[in-house]
Amino acid sequence: MMSLRFLRTFAAAAALAAGAALAQPRFDFDRTPGTLPKTVLPSRYTITLDLDPAAERFSGQASIALRLRRAVPEIVLHAYTLQPRGATLKAGGRDRALTVTADEATQTWRLVPADGRPLPAGTATLELAWDGTVQRSGSGLYRAPYGGGRAGAMLATQLEAVFARMVFPAFDEPSFRAVFELAVRTPVGVEVVSNTAERSVVDDGGRRLHRFEPTPPMPSYLVALAAGRFDTLAGRAAGVPLRILTAPGKAAQGAYALEVTERVLPFYSAYFGQRYALPKLDQLAVPSTRFGAMEDWGLISYAENTLLFDPAHSDTNTRRRIFSIVAHEVAHQWFGNLVTAASWEEIWLNEAFATWMAEKATERFNPEWNIALRRRGPIDDAMTRDAGDSTRAIRSGPVPEDRVFDVFDDITYVKGGAVLAMLEQWIGPKALRNGLAGYMAERRLSNATAGDLWHHIGRASGRNVAAVATSWTDQPGFPLVQAESRCEHGRTRLELSQRRFTLDGHDAPGLWKLPLVVQHGGRTSSLLLDGVRTSTTLAGCPATPTLLNPGGQGFYRVAYAPDWHAALAARFAELPGTAQATLLADTLALAQSGRLPMASLIELLAQLPSVQGPTRPALYAQARRAFEFLDESLHDSPAQAPLHAAARALFAPELATLGWTPRAGEGSEAEQLRNGLIADLAAYGDEAVIARAGELFDAELAGRAPLPPAIRQGVVSAVGRHADEARFAALLARLDAAASEEERWLYASAIAEVPDAALARRLLARTLDGTLPTNIATTLPQMVGQAPGHEQLAYDFVVAEFARLGELAGPMFGARAWLLPGTVAASADAGVARRMLADQQRLVGTPGAATAARAAARITLRAQVRAAEAQRLAPALQALASRLAPA
């Protein structure tokens, strides 16, 4: 019997799912959301920019070919932080002066005919001139100093999502595709690169004018240029010339990224049935200032630490990061560039697919990396958010421009990619690939919606893919599958039901069409759970318990009946690696929500030493994440000391087995685990590890022995966590002298953990003295706040200096919105969450609400676990430590 409350919840969920299935029409320009009128359409921009990497200002002129679909009283386009110097419309053989009115609130210019008469329908050319400002943060046109004592800087661009308007006036929305023909005037000796090949370079009044070939029709956010001095590493793949561009002296460090590109570019061309669309592909390593990477067509730009590999300092984590990010950005040359999401509401079509394709490329070219297990961490983080109040649907509905970076998040990237993997598992790889080929062919050089995608995949698979997919993309959350099993007459009877999984344990509306995978008696099968409950019968009653979601590709949690869960736990070491990872993840989530005691997770972790084979390092990495969450949740509680003892008991023998020195022929999994174990054991108070790390660091400082790259990150982190004033000074000197982004982040993250509050205050003061790149300066207070004991210190600093820090952060990727929430991101105090929400509203306003809510939800979850486990978990932790203690 169902309760009245459950029936009401089910009815609401069914109505929601039914409505979602109708919510994904195919692309129609006129119906696409946006702020600009659809009456004036650009077809070609001819832009000339006057730039100097040493100057604070730049200027530009543009000629924009337009089609006016009807007579209009004015033209509205985007422009922000630009100062107009003139505007004229050429049409019908006449020049008409336009008056420019800037609207800072909407970041637009209104161009009104000076004669007061309407502008007639037809073709016209808009002539504009303006001045602009070079930015300090990584948005718009920004300066990136070479750093490390080298004089000089380059200019680079980051125009996604809404920053093209900071470089040139534009119809700055994804659906307004146009051709861009760029020219850049610079001082002699400055090199320039852009989306397309350089057509010519000529002397121009003591300067040099660089002209570039026209681009294909594309949105304004994909325009890219860089100006400065570059070193180059060249290659070729799939008939396309490739270049890695770096600051002077660093080209050799691009060798691995070039190798990755030479692998993935032909793979993608074959997979999509579409060749890469431009005649060249450049990739630029930006030496400071920026975060992450940007997929600009033909000129992808990266923060240095996501593109460059230095054999003297980089470890396997860097190698993996480079492969993943390069594979992601090159995938965007199809998903995002060749076919562009219609609007920011559909941005998951760009980002989820690039995430999914990067994982597919990793599996193909690096099978030993165990991506099937390594994706568990990001997926669990996304599921944690998706199970709370701060989540949203993948297709989130209207996206205001001042909150556009709210949708560049783990729901878009990680959940979106996981849902695609789940759909592929359901319909089969061949059907999905054929559907994507049809989608690419039909939407080439145009925009698309989810409706276009499901149309083609549905045709290729012969299934109603839209009905299943929309239940995942158009509602928030995900299901908890509750499973019971019994043996009847020599057959296994499964009883399955679904409800929305929430971390607070309360009922919430939600019903999914769930492609469920079952492994039973050595065979794997699937079924579509599209109602609240179902039952099925499987052949035989094997001794090995049945598994749900054994490959971990389903975006759902499984709650096995108690005896079933106990049977799986008893045979944990015998399960497939992906099933072990999924059982660990689900057990932690069920314990976080109060559906299981946290001791159930500890029992599973106790079995890790008995697990053998190539999946072991990834499972230990998963255990490290679980201990990190518990350490934050139980900070300064009676259970924290037993937690640290249990962590040392579990991790120290593994480090001893691996040793501090990599062995010949050792795989990257072992290297990655070793580094993490050193950092974690130091954090958990392992005196032997702390002492050894200090000795190794001091030896390098004295010039006796360099730190091996394989343990560099772990050792430096351990030293920072326990630094005295002398080692603090040494780390700070290393930060100041760092010649690469990888080195800067290594020393910044380590020094932020310094335990002495007076030293932490000195570090915070450095963020505003102009000596650090803006990306490091604005992130340091957040890293300090997440170090034990410094949350209040960092929080108060950010509140007091918010105006100056906000100016440094700029608008990129919501950086300003994260300044305050980031300082308390590791808190377990619900009162801290409430105060942060109030201060965020006061300092940032509505555009910062979603960011604050995400941080508050994580704090609330930790507070919930703390309240439940601070007193009762200690015995289980003590038992774990005793069980693992050497005989």
Automatic annotation (TrEMBL):
Q: Which UniProt keywords apply?
A: Aminopeptidase, Hydrolase, Metal-binding, Metalloprotease, Protease, Signal, Zinc
The record's comment on cofactor binding reads: Binds 1 zinc ion per subunit.
Provide a GO CC annotation, any one.
membrane
Q: Kindly state a single biological-process term from the GO annotations of this entry.
A: proteolysis
Ranges for the Aminopeptidase N-like N-terminal domain?
42-222
Q: Name one GO molecular function term.
A: peptide binding
What Gene3D superfamilies does the database record attribute to this sequence? Answer: 1.25.50.20, 2.60.40.1910, Neutral Protease Domain 2 (1.10.390.10), tricorn interacting facor f3 domain (2.60.40.1730)
PANTHER family, alphabetically? PROTEASE M1 ZINC METALLOPROTEASE, PUROMYCIN-SENSITIVE AMINOPEPTIDASE-RELATED
Q: What is this protein called?
A: Aminopeptidase
Q: Which organism is it from?
A: Rubrivivax gelatinosus
